[in-house]
Amino acid sequence: MLRCASVLMCLLHVLHTVLGAAISPKPIIINGTYINPELGKYHARLRTLARSCLEIRDKHGVTQDGMYILSTASGTYYQAFCDMSSAGGGWTLVASVHENNIRGKCTSGDRWSSQQGNDQHRPEGDGSWASTHTFGTAEGSTSDDYKNPGYYDISAQDVSVWHIPNDEQLSNWTSSAVLRYHTESGFLRDTGNLYHLFKKFPVRFGAGRCGSDVGAVSPVVFDTGDKDSTADLYGPSAGGEFESGFVTFRVFDSDRAAMAMCSGVRPTQCSPQHYCIGGGGYFPTSDQCGDFTALDRSHTHTGASRRLTESAVLLFYR
Amino acid sequence: MLRCASVLMCLLHVLHTVLGAAISPKPIIINGTYINPELGKYHARLRTLARSCLEIRDKHGVTQDGMYILSTASGTYYQAFCDMSSAGGGWTLVASVHENNIRGKCTSGDRWSSQQGNDQHRPEGDGSWASTHTFGTAEGSTSDDYKNPGYYDISAQDVSVWHIPNDEQLSNWTSSAVLRYHTESGFLRDTGNLYHLFKKFPVRFGAGRCGSDVGAVSPVVFDTGDKDSTADLYGPSAGGEFESGFVTFRVFDSDRAAMAMCSGVRPTQCSPQHYCIGGGGYFPTSDQCGDFTALDRSHTHTGASRRLTESAVLLFYR
Amino acid sequence: MLRCASVLMCLLHVLHTVLGAAISPKPIIINGTYINPELGKYHARLRTLARSCLEIRDKHGVTQDGMYILSTASGTYYQAFCDMSSAGGGWTLVASVHENNIRGKCTSGDRWSSQQGNDQHRPEGDGSWASTHTFGTAEGSTSDDYKNPGYYDISAQDVSVWHIPNDEQLSNWTSSAVLRYHTESGFLRDTGNLYHLFKKFPVRFGAGRCGSDVGAVSPVVFDTGDKDSTADLYGPSAGGEFESGFVTFRVFDSDRAAMAMCSGVRPTQCSPQHYCIGGGGYFPTSDQCGDFTALDRSHTHTGASRRLTESAVLLFYR
């Protein structure tokens, strides 16, 4: 006999029973009735519906890495990967930059620069850094470009960045990472996230000059690798052109070509095309146009290592 | 103590309590248990699951603009934006035509004409107007082409069309609109929706002739702008080639090239490439191939204004 | 008055009542309250949440074809079409190969070979056969390439293959099929699914030789058509180059170009480009590069019939 003090208490009894059973890992048979454990897992994930992984950690006490369901301010629902382990957790994967063809210069698949060729009439290229256009999936983010609604919707203070070998499956990401780091400076507090940062500091050819017009820079704390191993990932000659231990957003080269992100470093010279990625749609030196700009250079001298150029760059917010 | 007259009454008590609490805007603590308000909003949206925004308005009495969950006849679930305000509401956003590169002629991103170049062997181009192929998201529909399952699934009588500046966020659409209008003629009643209309009247080079083979035309009621402001959006010379205050679907130019939609106007001459959009995959004058055909023309004489060419065209059904 | 022997029994009463009402086809009014039938259908579909259509059949006893909700091991939710009718049912649609431009050779839309042109520096092409990159939708799978998370996530033993005319709507697939067959050999048992099979046997130029390096071959049981009608679908000359009544995965031609799948047949000669589809990104004979390789050849002699080249190839797992 179920007796409850009130409708609300009765409801809570029922909900606790449902959800308690639901997150159990094995099938449950109650009086001959099968309770679907997959549905239980779904309800457990849905129960923590929030605007970000940080909210899921803070409001719902979740500490397990994995896929969760999030909502934008406008009420668009989407699935995202939450890193609940690194540096306290609460990190939402919002994007990845994947180079599908290092020899293709602003061709199909170069969504973070331009898929329309090098073109001086399109100085912002495809504009993905500052748009609400989304693409890809979390589970496919090491095999293709990825951008979810969290990129423009979540209010964040810091970023975490993972370099994961191309085509690596989600369950192996942490163990196979080439480089992982995060910021603790709260450098995104002013703008709120990268979408707004790049609205303010456009990734557009000619919008600024090398040195004087950097969008944002922050020191980083390494989770996999360190300053030296990061420098080694870029080419032997490139080492003298940057300082390791930072992440930098929106820079220009000496030709006024714009790049979106220098992962793990901050430029001290004016040839960021050898270690910065993403970009506008026009590079006066046309073979630099592309998601991974001129990181390849046949993997010699100024070129980055294959470990770096054959890894996707995953972006998290917190 | 919860006592109910029957299982059904008890269930209704419980559901009312859950859903009543769920749509409350602030967190709810009951006997120390936190009820997630985001989950509540989700349940409120899910509760009105239907085939179209019109059904949500009519059957569930919803009057708030926003994202809702819809289902196709086959049971595919998707999220769509509902305009519940304009002219009585009940409008489902099903598609947007976004020009990512006005200088690119049937290149990548020209999903509403052809992404394979101007090609006489592909007279229908990519065929998006009459296929079940979908792409994009509602929140990204001013930054990229958009087409959801509602485009082919919903039974509609009328359309509403919004011209919204590129990259504008959903919350600003109405206030920033360049042009908005809707039909009240029920011109879609015969075919059911644009998917079926374009099956009957293909957007295919050579399938008809200027003047005699128009797919459909309807007068419109303006919600933002009027006949004159609409004519002004197209170039000064184009004004003599159409009558403002209509929307037209599937027309041909004098070369027998096909275009899908003339927004706000109906052609009276045979050069619709200056004010009609979408198209087949072949234009004898090759620089007209593209989602926005020849609307640019350097923004002079026959060219449309930048306000028009730099806005996405959002299509709603009711 | 609701009285239950325990919380669990009470819960089951409530759930049975909710779900029982939910799957009813017509609106239900209980004491003046409207219960949404679309929401009921959604709950009925959600109730069978599982890793594959086979699980839905086996664990939940479902026998109706249609769209269902599935989950990957990592907890990504997606919608898939289940064929619950053919040969006992339990088949999950995981992919389709759609040729959007038979004349385009490794151009935009050739996701199962390469969208970057014929390129000896990209011997695996876009790599879709062995990646977690997904695209398209079930309802759009006859109008565009399709690949869902089930392709890499589901543990399968057999495949079913349907050739469905381009742009055919889901409700007509079975009746309009050009060719349908399935395997019963359990040939996928070793690798688990095609994703893992192609990891082991890469679709890469130069990775093997004609004849000696076939990835997998299995006899098939025909559901629509037979050995002769299958042979007829390929060109009159091609008939002498294969044996009908099989499905083959990963083959090479005499130039060492790689192809992913020979549908309905197994090669006995070394010109599989006339009847095998999908491929790496490099073909020494460049006009063979593309999702449908050289199946067209102007539809003469070695060319396949238009019925075949204008149909999408749908891939199911069980």
Descriptive overview:
Chains A, B, C: One of its GO terms (molecular function) is oligosaccharide binding. Chains A, B, C: Residues 129-142 have a biased composition (Polar residues). The structure is a homotrimer of 318-residue chains. Chain A folds into two domains: 1-47, no CATH class; 50-317. The first copy, chain A, contains eight helices and 16 strands. Chain A has helices spanning 7-22, 37-47, 53-60, 150-153, 173-176, 194-200, 227-233, 306-309; strands at 28-30, 33-35, 66-71, 77-83, 91-97, 146-147, 159-165, 179-182, 216-219, 221-224, 242-244, 246-252, 258-262, 265-267, 276-277, 311-317. In chain A, strands 3, 4, 5, 6, 7, 8, 10 and 16 form an eight-stranded antiparallel β-sheet that branches. A four-stranded antiparallel β-sheet of chain A has the order 9-12-13-15, with no helix packed on it. In chain A, strands 1-2 form a two-stranded antiparallel ribbon. In chain A, helix 1 (7-22) packs across helix 2. The longest helix of chain A has 16 residues, at 7-22. Chains A and B meet through helix 1 of A and helix 1 and helix 2 of B.
